[in-house]
Structure formats: structure tokens, C-alpha cells
Amino acid sequence: MSAESLAKSALVGAFSGTCLALAVIVSIDGGWTVSEAWSIPIILVMYSVMAAPFTGVGLCVFGLPLAMTLRPLLRYRWSAVLALALGALGGQIFFDIVVNLLWGHLSFTIFSRPSIGMAWGTTSALSYWYFERSALLRRGKPLN
After folding, report:
1. What's the pLDDT tens digit per position in 35-78?
2. What is the extent of the structural domain holding 108?
3. Each residue of 12-43: b (16+ CB within 10 Å) or e?
4. What is the dihedral angle through the alpha carbons of 7, 10, 16, 19, rounded to the nearest 10 degrees?
5. For the chain, does the N or the C end have fewer beta carbons within 10 angstroms?
6. Within 13 A of 144's CA, how many CA atoms are on the CB side?
7. So where does this one cross the membrane (predicted)?
8. How far apart are CA 20 and CA 25, in angstroms?
9. Which among 57, 54, 123, 59 is positioned nearest to 88, based on CA atoms?
10. Is residue 143 part of a domain?
11. Is the pLDDT of residue 1 over 80?
């Protein structure tokens, strides 16, 4: 497990997760007008910068223990699908916990519907899977 993979994954996951969530919101909302288009880059940068520390903490809390446990599966390419699924679950849980701790009543029995936490979790998990796998292959280490 490298700190470089973790840092890159947190940044890539924050930015790509924000892009993914914004694309979903725009598609559901019916799109933006030309007069609103100037705000897209500002929104992307602001939300990505705010999300980066949380994606990093989420990777440390959920991703690292799972990565150590599932390390033998890293050699298989299909493990990216597993990373996506576990990232979505971990991102949703972590997002709900953080939001409830900061702004509301914490309840472990009621989780909100799918949210931006899933977008940040899936993209962070997939980028961590990619960076960690690439680093191991570059060093010539076996993936098992």
C-alpha cells in the first residue's frame, strides 16, 4: 500500500466523483442554460477541493482495510468491479455518517437514498485499484 496511490486516488476520486454527480444532476434536472454554464467549472473545482479530504479519509477508513484483505484478488482484472461495488457502499455509508454527524441526527438504521457519496466512493475505489495495481506492476512485484 503506497501513500502515493492513496493521495492520487483521493484527488482523482474527488474530481471525477464530482463530475459524475454533476452529470447525473444535470441529466435529471433537464440541463443547464447557457447563462448558467459559466458556473460549471467553479462548481467542479469547489466541490472537488472540499471533497478531497473526505475521499482521502474514506479511503483510509474503508479502502485500506479492504485492500489489505482483498489483495490476492488484485491480480484479476474483474476485481475492479468488486472495487466499484465496495466503493459505492463505503462511499454511501461514509457520506451518510459525515453528513449526519455534522448536520443532523446520526441513525445507523436509516440511510438516505443514493447520493453523491456513491459517486465519490466508486471513483475513489476504482482509481485506488488502478494506481495500486499499476504501481505493483511497475515494480515487478507479483500481484498475489
Report:
1. 777 888 898 999 999 999 999 999 999 888 988 888 888 878 89
2. 3-138
3. bbbbbbbbbbbeeeeeeeeeeeeeeeeeeeee
4. -130
5. C
6. 0
7. 12-32, 38-68, 80-103, 115-131
8. 9
9. 123
10. no
11. no
Cα–Cα distance measured from residue 84 to residue 127, given in angstroms and rounded to the nearest whole number: 10
Q: What is the pLDDT of residues 81-130, one digit of tens each?
A: 999 999 999 998 888 888 777 777 655 555 556 678 899 999 999 999 99
Which set of grid coordinates corresponds to residue 21?
Answer: 454527480
Residue 97 C-alpha cell reads as 455518517
Cβ 120 vs Cβ 95: under 8 Å: yes
DSSP codes of every residue in 89-118: HHHHHHHHHHHHHHHS---SS--PSS-HHH
**18 within some domain:** yes
Which sign does the torsion angle of CA 7, 62, 110, 102 carry? negative
Domain for residue 85, yes or no?
yes
Residue 27 — φ and ψ, nearest 5°? -70, -35
CA–CA separation, 65 vs 63, rounded Å? Answer: 6
Under DSSP, is residue 39 helix (H, G, I), strand (E, B) or coil?
Answer: helix
